[in-house]
Amino acid sequence: MKAFVFQGPGQTSWQDVPDPGIKDAADVIVRVDAVTICGTDLHIIKGDVPDVAPGTVLGHEAVGEVMETGGDVRTVRPGDRVLVSCIAACGRCRFCRENRYGQCRGGGGWVLGHLVDGTQAEYVRVPFADLSVHPLPSQVDNDDAVLLADIFPTAYEVGVVNGHVGPGDTLVVVGAGPIGLAVIATARLYTPGRIIAVDLAASRLTAARAVGADATVSADEEPERLVEDLTDGLGADVVVEAVGVPESFEMCTRMVRPGGRVANVGVHGKPAALHLEDLWIKDVTITTGLVDTHSTPLLLRMVAAGKLPASGLVTHRFELGQMEEAYDVFSRAADTGALKVVLGGPRHDAVDRPAEPLSAPRV
């Protein structure tokens, strides 16, 4: 099959690789019908995620059809249309029992496109399928569904829930890329008093207004002063960092009110200063997090009911074989206006898998 392979920092290729096969009784093989690119994939290519070994197929978000299942799989069967979650869950370890699947110690967590081959391919092996793929209702199309593999659960759980967004709050979202926009969309479910979006790109600020931001400001036009003016000098109740650079994180800590909350969602490749000389007296709570995807079934129901504007974030579509072009467009978002790109298209129809004996689940 064809797949998009990481060869080392700054080096990738769309190339032939062996088709995946069932390795464990908890696996499924999914034919990929739609896949997208995440900002985390760009961090991997830059070398910010050293755990990713050269030769790894990238990608951790997909929609497709189950082609084959291991003997222990009970929740899906061949022919089912499914969402492939960015997080795998063994279901047995302490963290899985607490619904903290991102911290799974039984071989799950964020493994696809990280520690094992991922979804930016014609086929993907998904471990721990009973908790890691979700059957899709017919009324949810691929463009909507694929955004529920990562960005909407991440925005909701790590931004909105960790930030304890509540009615009447002033929420500032720093970074109006896909994650930041999904934070705005899901935060509106909690009726904050106002949502302020901060970004450098005018096109992203326009998108932020479209999904529900009440005010927008360019990052180079004194956003801290705007927040101060709109809150009578108090500061924001909740500030979500959705960029992943030191400057934006430090800006967030300056904009939060005493007793407020900073929820970091961005993937950071460099250290950021924590100015405890200013923060220690302010009773500020700072949270970090990797998505757990425990909210995926809830978000799926809301998309099916038309309550979340998921596919409205898709700005570009490509065939699967146009992976390199799609990466180029996505990586130059300031020039191209890209938010989310979705790929899907021609594929071969059979999986040539090696015969392997089933064993106890592992990844």
From TrEMBL:
InterPro entries found in the cross-reference section: ADH-like_C (IPR013149), ADH-like_N (IPR013154), ADH_Zn_CS (IPR002328), ER (IPR020843), GroES-like_sf (IPR011032), NAD(P)-bd_dom_sf (IPR036291)
Domain Enoyl reductase (ER): 8-343
Gene3D superfamilies: Medium-chain alcohol dehydrogenases, catalytic domain, NAD(P)-binding Rossmann-like Domain
PROSITE patterns: ADH_ZINC
UniProt keyword Secreted present: no
Pfam assignment, any one: ADH_N
Keywords: Metal-binding, Oxidoreductase, Zinc
Cofactor: Zn(2+)
CDD domains linked: FDH_like_ADH2
Highest taxon, organism lineage: Bacteria
Entry-linked PANTHER family: NADP-DEPENDENT ISOPROPANOL DEHYDROGENASE, ZINC-TYPE ALCOHOL DEHYDROGENASE-LIKE
Membership in a protein family: Belongs to the zinc-containing alcohol dehydrogenase family.
Protein name: Zinc-dependent alcohol dehydrogenase family protein
Organism this protein belongs to: Streptomyces formicae
